[in-house]
Amino acid sequence: KYQPEASPVKPAMENSLRILTTVINGMRHWSQFKDKIPYLFEIFATLDSAVTLGRYGAKNFLMRDGKDVLQCVFYENEQVLPRLIRGQVHRCVGNYDRARDVLICVSVRAALPSEQRNALEAVKVSDAEMRGVVKVFSEV
Amino acid sequence: FQKVLGVIIGKTDVRSFPDRKNVEINRFTFGFTIRDSPDFFINVTAWGTEAYINGLADSFSIGDCVTIESPLVSTKDPEKGDRFCPTTPSLYRLLVTETHSQVCLCADGDASDWLLPLLHLPVKDSRDFYSLGDVVANGQKLEGSVINILAALKQVGDVKQFVTSDGRRGQRLEVKLFDDSVSSFPLISWDREPIQLLQGLLPRETGRLESISDVYTVSQLKEKAKEHPQPFFGLTYSFISRLDLDSSVSKVIKTRCGRCRLLVTEDLQTCSNQLCPARDQPLSASTGFDLLVDFTDHTGTLQACSLRGPVAEQTLGCTTEEFTRLTDDQRTALKWRFLLERCKIHVKIVPCARTKSGIRALVLGCLLADPGEVKQHMAQLLQGP
User: Fold this and answer.
1) Residue A21 to residue B298, Cβ atoms within 8 A
2) Which residues form the MEIOB-like N-terminal domain (chain B) (predicted)?
């Protein structure tokens, strides 16, 4: 009886949550695969607006890196938003809403000087990982 | 002489030798030591075909209670095989062969109850041991002798697999001992069972963390656990993505039976675990932090890692007593000092069939990561393997 050669087994794509360190533009780019694997983003960027109060207790503000500007929102469910200083670099971790182009932040705080100096490598590593992931997607 | 019932306190790997009468045929053998009282234990040697000996050797381990039916009794010959066996108080040794004898796991729970404690009793006079300093001072004089050592475990290495020049597979584990006379002394084990035994021991904490230097991403930890079904230690720079500090205190601080480590409620008088060796005794329980945390990086999430006891106290910077006095807001604030922050995490990864991921992770140390160190690790990842 004819037996077709076994096709090499594709390793199952890691489907657990990831946290990607990235820049604003990178986040917008990688978010297009959000329906395939879950991830949160960590960004380091400069506060470029006042913090304003929105509906349902939302705190809205803009973050900027280079020419890219991003709308952010933080809901004070568990903790109050710390005092943010316009013009300084902050660290935001959150879930990017692609449809509204908003980062829904779950953690916001001032970035440490050493974090600002050293974040670039983590961005490169996240980019490299995502290029690999996307490659696997395109092969499937 | 019909039957011996005892607990296995030692066991060698299976070896083979060419038959004296027919060199074409290999005879297979392994040895074990069985104990049935504080004062008496005896060496047993099993001989037979490859299938019989391998099957028998796989059927029990150190710490199991077995009955041996119809073993042959023979006088010890200190010049021959017994030279390489543990010293026993008996003048005799037992022989197990396929045709005459049978070894079975003991199904009698009562017998196991009184036999199992014998596993932890020293086989020699409690004063008959060498310090590491004694061993060093004696040097060559001790070569070839079988001695007892009393020392603490500093570090457990990785198991190295190898194939000998004549094609036999073997393994090797090196551990480091220390005592008040010598700060580091290597002990090498070549047999499977002692290696498993040594892997189950936890080395002294400080020595342990210093010795863990291999850095992994989450997916590398998972892959290594899949490829090598043996416990290993590692370091990961990952975000804590679950830390339930502000749910009810009973989910953060738990009480476990001191013997079997099963969760118990404190108001119980005895352990509720039917299989607990101490279930008939008054409950001796220990209470401590007992959390399951998730770690996440750019490659994925390691779920349900145990963060317990003193390691948790060190990580959180408070004792359980201090924690219980915190207000809800303070607990939430404590949680957010770590949640979604990048941490430097020392873990022990243990393969475990019961969990969904196939592994169980124990946190040995966890603190907020230094961004400079994270950068170094990331730079290494970019360079590739």
Assistant:
1) yes
2) 3-124
Q: Which CATH architecture has domain B212-383?
A: Beta Barrel (2.40)
Nearest residue, CB atoms, B241 vs list A19, A78, A119: A19
Residue ranges and CATH numbers for the domains of chain A are 18-134 (2.40.50.140)
Asked whether A129 and A100 are in contact (CB, 8 A), the reply is no
CB contacts of B239 in chain A (<8 Å) are: 19, 42, 93
Q: Which CATH superfamily is domain B3-120 in?
A: Nucleic acid-binding proteins (2.40.50.140)
CB contact under 8 A, B371 and A93: no
The 10s digit of each residue's pLDDT in B260-304 is 778 887 677 788 777 777 777 888 788 899 999 999 999 999 999
pLDDT at residue number A11:
52
Both tokens of B20, joined, read 């004296």
Q: Which residues pair with A43 in a beta bridge?
A: A22, A92
DSSP string, A19-87: EEEE-HHHHHHHGGGTTTS-EEEEEEEEE-S--EE-GGGEEEEEEEETTEEEEEEEE-SSSPPPPP-TT
